[in-house]
Amino acid sequence: MWYYRFFRTITNIHRIIIYLVLTYFQKNLNVTYNKVKVISSEDENIVKQYYFLNDLGSCDCVKISRCDCLILIDNFTLFTFIKFIRCIKRIRVIDINFFAHLGLNMLINIGFFDIATKHQRSSMKKSSLKNYYTLKELLQDTEVFVLGTNATFTKNLKLLNNRPVFICNDAIYKISEIKAEIIVFCFADPLFHFSADKNSINFLNTIKQNEKYIDYLVVPINAIPIIKNMQINTKIIGVNSSNKNQRFLEINKSDLTTKKTHNIMTQFMLPISLSVSKKVFLGSVTVSNNFDKKLWNYDTTLMKNNQKNYAFKYSFFRDRNFKNYYKVHHRFLNKQINESNNLELL
After folding, report:
1. Co-location of 16 and 159 in the same domain
2. Among residues 115, 130, 159, which one ends one of the domains?
3. Does residue 45 form part of some domain?
4. Which of 62, 150, 260, 330 has the fewest beta carbons under 10 Å from its own?
5. Domain check: are 29 and 152 in the same one?
6. Is residue 178 part of a domain?
7. 30 with 166, same domain?
């Protein structure tokens, strides 16, 4: 991955290979599990409390190799993996510090690929496409705003004049004050939004508490089971993303797919807003290619300085080369801006 730290990547190459193998089984075997065996260094009940996992029965089998349960490794070691390698097709590493976002991705994918049936997955995709086309019908002749969360967020809210707006992430903490005809709320971060960290849980609870202000949610398609488990009833547009996409947005009969850019603005907000509206006013984003402290300046009405520093205790942030990340992010962002005839910067 282009934004991993080089040394951390080399020293964790075995984990990356294991992830690729296990993810292949997870996405392609089309097996639905109803029992789970947790291999944990701590109380397994902590793991079982993760959203959809509490709906699975605990497996107390003596011969795990002869069982059909899903095996969750919460504290990864190579020894543990080898110990259960005979059951490799059923192993899922859900260690938050496995490497970068890999353990989190495998955990989030459980609800979509390991628990949901093929019919249920198909239903999620159909519902997402239906909601996308409904939104497009509402906005196709309309000007919309797309706002990030930098220091100009509150200022740009004053320009809305009740027009539809796409917002993201920590804007949820100000959503009750937004005057807009339609609010589309987007979020996708594995650590901040869909992990078992208490901050992520608080974030989703805040969405639940404010769902009456939200008209549409835009999330990764594999995260829909988490949203459903929270009993959030807002219309959901679940988006699949792929590195293979040539365009930033592609639509076929069963999937809404965006180019994987690893950024909420370029992977979700801009591709969708540009495709459904007459014109987009883009604001509260940093378009400079220079990596500097301004990139971390959020609107102070949304969060305090250093409020998210807790994330650096996790591999998710520690393993990143942020200079490379933002260099590529700005390349994608400026490409979208330059190629769009219906976009204007605020």
Report:
1. no
2. 115
3. yes
4. 62
5. no
6. yes
7. no
Parallel/antiparallel/unpaired status of strands 235-242 and 57-58: unpaired
Domain co-membership, 71 together with 126 = no
Is position 1 within any domain?
Answer: no
More confident residue, 48 or 205: 205
Residue-wise pLDDT tens digits, 217-247: 999 999 999 999 999 999 999 999 999 998 9
In which band, very low, low, confident or very high, does the pLDDT at 294 lie, cut at 50, 70 and 90?
Answer: low
Residues 29 and 159 in one domain: no
Q: Is residue 168 part of a domain?
A: yes
Q: 166 and 261 in one domain? A: yes
C-alpha 41/C-alpha 212 separation (Å) is 40
Predicted confidence (pLDDT) per residue in 174-203, tens digit: 999 999 999 999 999 999 999 989 999 999
One domain for residues 41 and 160? no
Type of residue found at 220: P
Upper half-sphere CA count for residue 6 (Cβ side, 13 Å): 2
Count: domains in the chain = 2
- Residue partners of 242: CB distance under 8 A and separation at least 6: 257, 258, 259, 260
Residue that terminates a domain, selected from 90, 115, 140: 115
Provide the residue range defining the domain that includes 197.
118-345
- Can you give the C-alpha Rg of the chain in angstroms? 20
Q: What does the H/E/C string look like for the chain?
A: CCCECHHHHHHCHHHHHHHHHHHHHHHHCCCCCCEEEEECCCCHHHHHCCHHHHHCEECCCCCHHHCCCEEEECCCCHHHHHHCHHHHHHEEECCCCCCCCHHHHHHHHHHHHHHCCHHHHHHHHHHHHHHHHHHHHHHCCCEEEEECCECCHHHHHCCCCECCEEEEHHHHHHHHHCCECCEEEECCCHHHHHCCCHHHHHHHHHHHHCHHHCCEEEEEHHHHHHHHHCCCCCEEEEEEEECCCCCCEEECCCCEEEECCCCHHHHHHHHHHHHHCCEEEEECCCCCCCCCHHHHCECCCCCCCCCCHHHHHCHHHHCECHHHHHHHHHHHHHHHHHHCCCEEEC
pLDDT tens for residues 89-110?
Answer: 999 999 999 999 999 999 999 9
Over residues 76-87, the mean pLDDT reads 95
